[in-house]
Structures are given as structure tokens and as C-alpha cells.
């Protein structure tokens, strides 16, 4: 059965999943992804799911305690938030089915104080967005250069932090229009495409 944005709260709350703590996920009480674990319990939010998987199957490890998880998440969030005026208005058409589009557009218009179409044309978009994204991108660059042998943040060992970076770039790649976001991001530093290419095997869907 297909589920859409308006279904998240009633579906996940009915499963007994606790709501997100205040201030997380842009104030969303319930969010995606959520997962049913092998013991029958449910967990919501990517990092919470990763910790649960680490407990259930510690090998191969996701290396959540490698010192990079929080740093990478903060850097990616900084870059992502800055690029929202460019990326978010494209989400309804490129990623969502009709049943979710109206909900997404209405809730985001309320969040930003303007329709997404207007946000895309605002002074926050374009070069202003890229300027605001530079600090986050510089932090990602610095992290990826800490182990010059690469390609992962830990060098030769992949970790959850790598999946977080790759997931961000995959999201951007889907929303890209003629190379204006993904290709431009990849040109920021040679470590970015090197890292993304190394992570491609974990971006393949198995469904």
C-alpha cells in the first residue's frame, strides 16, 4: 500500500513510534525514514536507525563513534539549508507523487513564509544560496582531506558518515537541472567526486 506525506503521522503513531524530540527534523512530529526491526520494534530517523542496526548487527560496523558522524551531519546540514531555496522548490515535481505534493507545498510555504515558487526566485536563491553554502562545503572538504589516501572520511574504511554525505549528493543529483547544483557542487573540490564515486555501490536500490 502506498503511503504519502499526510499518512506519516497517523501511520507511524499507530505503530507506537514515539514522536521526534522538539527541534529536530524542522519540527516534524513524525518523519521518514522509519524502519521495522527484526525484533518487531520500530524506529524513526536515519541516525536512530543506524544505531539500532549497529546494535543488532555490529559487524561490519557503521563506525558511528569514529568522531566524524556529528561533524559530517553538521556540515551537510549547513550546506543543505543554504541550498534549500534552489533545491526545495524542485522536490514536489521531481520527487513526489500528486498525493504528497499539495501537503509538501502547503507546509513548506508556511515554514518559509512564501510559496516555493516564490522562494526559488527570491534573493535567497541563486548565487546567494551558494555563498551561504560555502562554509558547510569547506567543512566537508576539510574532513575529506584529513585522510588524503581516501576516498572515505576514515581513509580506506567506509562508515555511516560517508553514507550521509553520499545521500545528500544523491538528493542534489536528482534535483539537478543541467548541472546547476550537482555538477557545480562536485567541482567545489576534487575530493567530492572521488568520494561520491566510491559510495555509488551503496546508492544502488535493491528492490
Automatic annotation (TrEMBL):
UniProt cross-references to SUPFAM superfamilies, sorted A to Z: GST C-terminal domain-like
Alphabetized Pfam families for the sequence: GST_C_7 (PF22041)
InterPro entries: Glutathione-S-Trfase_C_sf, GST_UstS-like_C
Domain spans labelled Glutathione S-transferase UstS-like C-terminal: 78-180
Residues covered by region (Disordered): 1-28
Name the UniProt record assigns to this protein: Glutathione S-transferase UstS-like C-terminal domain-containing protein
Source organism of this protein record: Friedmanniomyces endolithicus
Amino acid at each position: 500500500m502506498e503511503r504519502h506525506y499526510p499518512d506519516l503521522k497517523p501511520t507511524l503513531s499507530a505503530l507506537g513510534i514515539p514522536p521526534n524530540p522538539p527541534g529536530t527534523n524542522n519540527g516534524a512530529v513524525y518523519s521518514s525514514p522509519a524502519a521495522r526491526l527484526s525484533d518487531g520494534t520500530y524506529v524513526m530517523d536515519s541516525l536512530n536507525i543506524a544505531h539500532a542496526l549497529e546494535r543488532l548487527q555490529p559487524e561490519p560496523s557503521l563506525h558511528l563513534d569514529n568522531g566524524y558522524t556529528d561533524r559530517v551531519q553538521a556540515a551537510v546540514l549547513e550546506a543543505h539549508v543554504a541550498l534549500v531555496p534552489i533545491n526545495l522548490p524542485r522536490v514536489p515535481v521531481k520527487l513526489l507523487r500528486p498525493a504528497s505534493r499539495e501537503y509538501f507545498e502547503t507546509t513548506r510555504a508556511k515554514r518559509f513564509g512564501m510559496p516555493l515558487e516564490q522562494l526559488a526566485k527570491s534573493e535567497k536563491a541563486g548565487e546567494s544560496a551558494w555563498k551561504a553554502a560555502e562554509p558547510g562545503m569547506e567543512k566537508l572538504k576539510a574532513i575529506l582531506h584529513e585522510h588524503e589516501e581516501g576516498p572515505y572520511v576514515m581513509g580506506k574504511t567506509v562508515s555511516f558518515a560517508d553514507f550521509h554525505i553520499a545521500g545528500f549528493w544523491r538528493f542534489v543529483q536528482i534535483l539537478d537541472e543541467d548541472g546547476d547544483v550537482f555538477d557545480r557542487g562536485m567541482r567545489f573540490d576534487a575530493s567530492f567526486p572521488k568520494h561520491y564515486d566510491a559510495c555509488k555501490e551503496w546508492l544502488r536500490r535493491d528492490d
